[in-house]
Amino acid sequence: MSEKTMNMAKTLVSQMTLEEKMSQMIYESDAIERLNIPEYNWWNEALHGVARAGDATVFPQAIGLAATFDEELVNEIGDVVSTEGRAKNNQFQKRGDHGIYKGLTYWAPNVNIFRDPRWGRGHETYGEDPYLTGKLGVAYIKGLQGDNKDDLKAAACAKHFAVHSGPEEKRHYFDARVSDQDLYDTYLYAFKRCVCDGDVEAVMGAYNRVNGEPACGNKRLLKDILRDEWGFKGHVVSDCWAILDFHEHHKVTDTVEESAAMAVRNGCDLNCGTAFRHLMEAYNQGLVTEEEITSAVERLMDVRIRLGMLKEHPSSYEDTPYELVECKEHVKLSVEASKRSMVLLKNDGLLPLDKKKVKSIAVIGPNSNSRAALVGNYEGISSQYITPLEGIQQYVGDDVRVYHADGTHLYKDRIHVLGEERDSFAEAITAAEHSDVVVMCLGLDATIEGEEGDAGNEYASGDKLGLRLPGLQQELLEEVVKVGKPVIVVLLAGSAMDLSWAHKHTNAIIDAWYPGARGGKAIAEAIFGEYSPNGRLPVTFYASTDDLPDFDDYSMDNRTYRYFKGTPLYPFGYGLSYNEISYSDSQISKEKASIGDEITVRTTVKNQGKYSVKEAVQVYVKDVEASCRVPLWQLKGIKVVELAPGEEKQVELTLSKRDFAIIDENGKCIVEPGEFKVSIGGQQPDKRSEELYGRGADIFDIELMGEVQEVEY
Asked: Low-confidence residues of the chain, pLDDT below 50?
C-alpha cells in the first residue's frame, strides 16, 4: 500500500457508520450506496488456475508445479492466472455478477509445509522444503499481483498461517504444539518470504490452535510476528468459519461475541464465515473498540481501492479482453508446465518407447481415463481434458492398437455396485496379454486425497491412512506384472506413495502428479520420447509409514529430508532423465571465510543426451559443528539452466550469511563459526541419491571464522 491509497481509504472509512464498517468485515461485504461502494464477495480461489468460476486454463496442481523447481515458470503461470481472472471479472462486473468466486482477491498460494505424506491437502502446497516453498510462493504471488502495488492485477493470499498440515479430521479442535526452533526453522519461513519478499496482500489464518491459541486469533502469530516483526501491512482473513471454532471446539471462549472480538483484537480483519455478524453485540459488551474495527476496515478498503474497485482509483486492467481466457498461448503453457512437472523415478532402459516398434499397448488402471486424476482440487473447468488413455490414443493414432481396462475402482473392491470383487481384473489381464507393453495408471485423486469436507474418503476426512496404493490397485499391479510384459507405472497422485514393490518389479515409473486438464498429452509424449522428463521431487518418498513419527506430532524430528535419519525410497530433489547430465569443474570461492562473506559456488553442467532439458542445479548447506539440533542438509540455492543437446554451461550461485544461519532452540537466527559443508549438483548430497543416480554431488568443506552473529530471519 502507499500513503496515497491508505489516505483515500481512511477518508472513505471516516464517512462510514460503525454498522457500515462492520458490514465490510464479512467475506460477503454489503454495498454502501451513499458512498458508491459496491457489494463484494472476497472469496475466490486460484491455486493453479482460476477456480470455481467457469472455464479457465487448468495448470498442474501446486505440488506438480513445485516439481519444476522453477521460479520463472511459476511466476509466468501466476501472471496468466491473474490475466484470466481479470478478463473474467471484467465481464462479471458488466453483468452485475458479484457472487462468490467472481472477485479479484485470490486465496492462494498455500505455503504450508508438507511435513507428513499422510496429509490430504499436501498437494496444494509446494512440498516439504521451506526454502523451495518460499521461492515458489513468492514467484506465484508476484505473478498474480503484478508489478505495481497501487494498481494491483489481483490480490494474493498466503495461507494457512500457521503450523498447519493435518490431521484434517481434527483441525477444528487440534492444538499444534511446536517449539520455537521448529516454528521459525520450518513453519514460518515461507510465510516471511511471502510477506517481506513477495509483498503478499493478504494472509489467511488456520483452523487449528498453535501452542494453545487459535491461529485466527493468535496474538503472537498475527500481531507480534506478522505485523510487528515482519511489518505486514495487508489484511488478515480467517479460514472459513474458523472463528466459530474458538467457542464451539477449541473452547477458548464461551460465546460467538467473545470469539469475534478475540479475532479482531488480535489482528484478523476479514471473516470468511458468520462470526463477525455478531461484532455489534461484541462492541456493545465492551469486548472490541471502534478503533480496532476502523483499522481493520481501512486495510480492507485500501486493497479494494488498489484493485480498482472504486471509481476514484480505476484499474489499468479493466479492459483485459475475455478472449485471453483459455487462449492458445495459455493452453500451451499449461501443457509445458505438465511436461516440466513429470518426475522419472525409474527407468531400466525401456523408456522412451519407439512408436515404430510398438504394435499394441495396454493402458490399465483406475486413473487411466480419469478426469479427476488430472486436476487435483481447487480447480477450474477446462474446455478440453486429455486423460492418459486419450493422450496415448491421440499420439499413436491408428498405427498402434490401444487396449484399455480400468481394472479396479480407485479405492473400492469392485467397479460396479452389483459386481463381484475384482470384477474388472480379468479384463485388465486380457488387455495386458494382448499388448506389447503395459502402462499402469495408478494412484489417487482429490475425491480421497484432499480437504476435510471436500474429499469423500469417509475413513480419514481427506487424509491418507498410509502410503500404500488404495483399494486393490497394488494387487492389480502384481497380477498384471505376472503376465510378463514390460510395465510402465504412471502415478497420478498429489503425495508420496509406497512404490517399493513397483520399484523392484516394473520397468519404469513416472510421477505425473495431478498434471492439469491436458496432462494426458504430456504423459504420452514423455512415454514416447517427444521430450525427456526432468522434474525433481519436492517431497521425500518414504518406504513405509513405519519410518514416520505420529501424524499428530509437529516436531520436525525425523521428518522430511532435512531431519529424516532413515533411508528413503526416493529422496527430495531426485528425478531421472533420458539424458546423461554431467557436472564437472566444480569449485568454491573460499575454503576459509569470515562470517558475513559471500561465498560463490560454481560448476559446469553438460547435457550429453539428445534432448533439450532444463536442469535444476541444487546447492545444499550443512552446519557440521552446530551448538543445537540442525537439519542434516538444507537446500539454499536453485538455478534452472536450459541446455540444448551437447551444450554445457557454467552455473554460479552465491551464498550469503543468511544461508549459513541456523535457528537455535530459542528461535533466534544465528550464524556460528565452525565447519560447514556445501554441495552442488543435480541432486541432494545423500547416499540414496548417489545410489539411484550412480553419482554423487560435489561437496566442499568451508570454515567460517568470527563471533556468533544474529542475522535477520
From this structure: none
- Burial of 197 (C-beta count, 10 Å sphere; 0-12/13-18/19+): middle
What's the CATH code of the domain at 411?
3.40.50.1700
Tell whether 388 and 511 lie within a shared domain.
yes
| Residue 513 is assigned to a structural domain of this protein | yes
Asked whether residue 527 is domain-assigned, the answer is yes
Alpha helices in 219-320 (DSSP H): 245-248, 256-265, 279-284, 290-306
Query: Looking at this protein, which amino acid is placed at residue 291?
Result: E
Active-site hit among 239, 245, 623, 698:
239
- Per-residue pLDDT, 458: 66
239 catalytic residue (yes or no)? yes
Residues 603 and 500 in one domain: no
Residues 633, 508 within the same domain: no
Could you list the residue range(s) of the whole structural domain that residue 599 is in? Answer: 581-710
- Asked if 337 and 384 sit in the same domain, the reply is yes
- Express each pLDDT in 286-317 by its tens digit: 999 999 999 999 999 999 999 999 988 899 99
Q: Whole-structure pTM over 0.85, yes or no? A: yes
- Within 8 A by CB and 6+ apart from 29, the residues are 23, 39, 40, 41, 42, 300
Q: Would you state the pLDDT for residue 2?
A: 80
Would you say residue 340 lies in a domain?
yes
Residue-wise pLDDT tens digits, 251-269: 999 999 999 999 999 999 9
d(CA 184, CA 620): 19
Asked if residues 491 and 499 have their Cβ atoms less than 8 Å apart, the reply is: yes
**Cα–Cα–Cα angle for 222, 228, 232, nearest 5°?**
70
